[in-house]
Amino acid sequence: MPQKRFVLEPDGPERLEISWEGGWFLVAANVRVKLDGKQIAVFPSPDVLRSEQMVMLPDGTNLTLCLKGSTNFVVRQNGTDVSTLFHPKRKMRDLSHTLIVWGGLALIWFIWELTLKVSFFPIVGLVLSISTIIMGFIPIPIVKTTKGEK
């Protein structure tokens, strides 16, 4: 069952989980909303979520859910959009995965150049691909910026 997780406060843990039946690219039925592992709402049809639906959280705050497109959920807590907040570990994980994929593609490119003998500097491709893969496994510190800084 596909799912998406959200944080409710900046740099906080992923406490809110939305899961559904269908696939990663289509919400078919039974949209379940969980907070800290406890189910707080069920929507039998995704058509209900095409318009904003409000759910009361156990702490008394309002959670507004809306389905835009096929699997894009817009989540607001007391009017504040939380669907764009990410946990720093998720940011780091996504960056690491991107570096590993690019390094793997560069390694494949290097092997292709080596077999066809079309490269003037095959060692450069090898060094770049391996160093990119290694950087993907090294944790990169995330610099916290305050609002208004760019």
Mind explaining what this structure looks like?
Strand 1 and strand 2 (14-23) form a beta hairpin. This protein starts with a strand and ends in a 13-residue tail after the last helix. The chain has helices spanning 88-116, 122-137; strands at 3-7, 14-23, 26-35, 38-43, 53-56, 62-68, 72-77, 80-81. It has two helices and eight strands; from the N terminus they run E-E-E-E-E-E-E-E-H-H. The chain has two domains: 3-81; 88-137. The strands form two sheets. Strands 1-2-3-4 form a four-stranded antiparallel sheet, with no helix packed on it. It is an alpha+beta fold and 150 residues long. The chain is 30% helix and 33% strand. It is elongated and about 65 Å long. Helix 1 (88-116) runs antiparallel to helix 2 (122-137).
The sequence of SSEs as H and E is EEEEEEEEHH
Bin the strand percentage.
25-35%
Class based on secondary structure composition and strand pairing: alpha+beta
Gyration radius from CA atoms, angstroms: 21 Å
Give the SSE layout:
Elements: E1 3-7, E2 14-23, E3 26-35, E4 38-43, E5 53-56, E6 62-68, E7 72-77, E8 80-81, H1 88-116, H2 122-137
Antiparallel strand pairs: 1-2, 2-3, 3-4, 5-6, 6-7, 7-8
Helix pairs in contact: 1-2
Keywords summarizing the entry:
4-stranded antiparallel beta sheet; alpha+beta; 2 domains; 150 residues; 8 strands; single chain; 2 helices; elongated
